[in-house]
Design goal:
The complex is a heterodimer of chains A (99) and B (271). Chain A is mostly helical and 99 residues long. Chain A has a single domain, classed as ACP-like (Non-ribosomal Peptide Synthetase Peptidyl Carrier Protein, Chain A, Orthogonal Bundle). Chain A has 3 helices and no strands. Chain A is globular. The mean pLDDT of chain A is 90. Chain B folds into 2 domains: 204 residues, Rossmann fold; 53 residues, no CATH class. In chain B, strands 1-2-4-3-5-6-9-10 form an 8-stranded mixed beta sheet, with helices on both faces. Chain B has a two-stranded antiparallel sheet with strand order 7-8. In chain B, strand 5, helix 3 and strand 6 form a beta-alpha-beta unit. The longest helix of chain B is centred in the C-terminal third of the chain and has 21 residues. Chain B is globular and about 55 Å long. Classes of the chains: A mainly alpha (99), B alpha/beta (271). The interface between A and B is medium-sized, with 25 and 26 residues.
């Protein structure tokens, strides 16, 4: 009889999973706010601020509110910068930092 | 054809632009309270649909712009929370004086920040659409618009850089108002309302596969403690007020229609 061996995930694998999950959740929020793009338009490299015409100040603030509610985090005014909102990836990084 | 009356109704400080749709046989009255600032623009198309739907079911539906907003008289800079609340009370009292039919309010999003005990005691029920009773959070989000708008101009500024027109006035995202108005709104919360017993329906936009976040649960629990008739309806539909293009939440409208029917039938039973 052979016993099944379980392997614990490494920290890198856990982090990778967290990034993937957070990215997917952020994309889901973005699709709600900016619905006029196909789902495959969105990925971690998708540029946001300055790249998508619909990503205006209203969309940005709506997204902040949704992120705060969904992830139960609080963003500071200083977090509202072009760098943090430049792409899905930078936004994911911000959310993970504040989580 | 829908019978619509367009008028400038005399509010407490000035004329309010008002649209009233009155069916041949009015079974109830439904006053739509517009949410605040940009949310008013983001919900207007949907409120019109709801108002027409209510009319077809026998509600006299009334839609108006708050003083200093939309097509109503006055400037935003010249109003305050009490004026907006008293305009609502005035309309409710006049309805009561002319009709024995029940009166309901429809309050989307930030419109609930206008609620007061005086308003609630005049009505037979409330319909709340994704309400946010957290005034502090609403004002914080609104002020963030100023920061976000500066970003689009490619210059980073601090929160205090909202344009101060005068000592007491502030301009946020193109809206010039008394800074005290924002202070008043920030102080609004569910805790300020006393318990009430009228019918209360809460439409909560929630994806079927997602759990409600703790902040929303807390607000629902707080209201449930104040109103033992609270009915919470989950709505799995588009958040039409957030989208950058016009969207219609069809399944919400269908749910809302059912609630209209329930309100009318419960009133019939009481009579």
């Amino acid at each position: 009889m052979t016993s099944a061996q379980t392997t614990q995930p490494t920290n890198d694998q856990i982090n990778e999973h967290k990034i993937k999950q957070t990215t997917e959740q952020i994309i889901a929020l973005l699709i709600t706010i900016i619905p006029n793009y196909d789902n495959d338009f969105w990925n971690e490299e998708t540029e946001l601020f300055g790249a998508i015409a619909e990503f205006d100040s209203m969309a940005l603030v709506t997204l902040i509110g949704e992120i705060e509610e969904y992830f139960d985090i609080t963003l500071d005014d200083d977090d509202i910068s072009a760098d943090n909102f430049s792409s899905v990836a930078t936004l994911t990084e911000l959310v993970l930092e504040r989580s | 054809m829908v019978s619509t009356q367009v008028e400038f109704y005399q509010g407490v400080k000035g004329a309010l632009f008002r649209l009233t749709r009155t069916p041949e046989h009015t079974l109830a009255h439904l006053l739509f309270i517009a949410p605040l600032f940009e949310q008013a623009n983001q919900t207007r198309h949907h409120i019109t649909r709801s108002a027409i739907s209510a009319y077809h079911q026998g509600f006299q539906s009334i839609v108006f712009d708050h003083y200093g907003t939309g097509d109503s008289a006055g400037e935003l800079d010249d109003t305050n929370l009490a004026i907006w609340q008293q305009d609502i009370v005035k309309q409710l009292i006049e309805l009561k004086n002319h009709s024995e039919k029940p009166i309901y309010l429809s309050l989307p999003l930030s419109a609930v920040l206008l609620l007061s005990d005086e308003i609630i005691k005049q009505v037979d029920g409330l319909m709340l659409l994704q309400p946010d009773f957290n005034g502090k959070r609403f004002v914080q989000q609104f002020k963030r618009l100023a920061l976000a708008a500066q970003l689009t101009k490619k210059s980073k500024v601090k929160g205090s850089d909202m344009i101060e027109k005068q000592v007491k006035s502030v301009e946020v995202a193109g809206y010039l108002m008394q800074s005290s108005l924002l202070d008043e709104l920030a102080e609004q919360s569910l805790n300020k309302l006393v318990d009430f017993t009228s019918n209360c329906y809460w439409f909560e936009w929630k994806n079927a596969s997602e759990e409600l976040n703790p902040g929303r649960i807390k607000q629902q629990e707080l209201l449930a403690n104040k109103n033992n008739k609270l009915v919470i309806q989950a709505t799995d539909d588009v958040k039409f007020w957030q989208a950058t293009e016009l969207q219609i939440a069809q399944s919400f409208l269908a749910q809302e229609q059912l609630v209209f029917t329930q309100l009318l039938s419960s009133n019939k039973e009481l009579n």
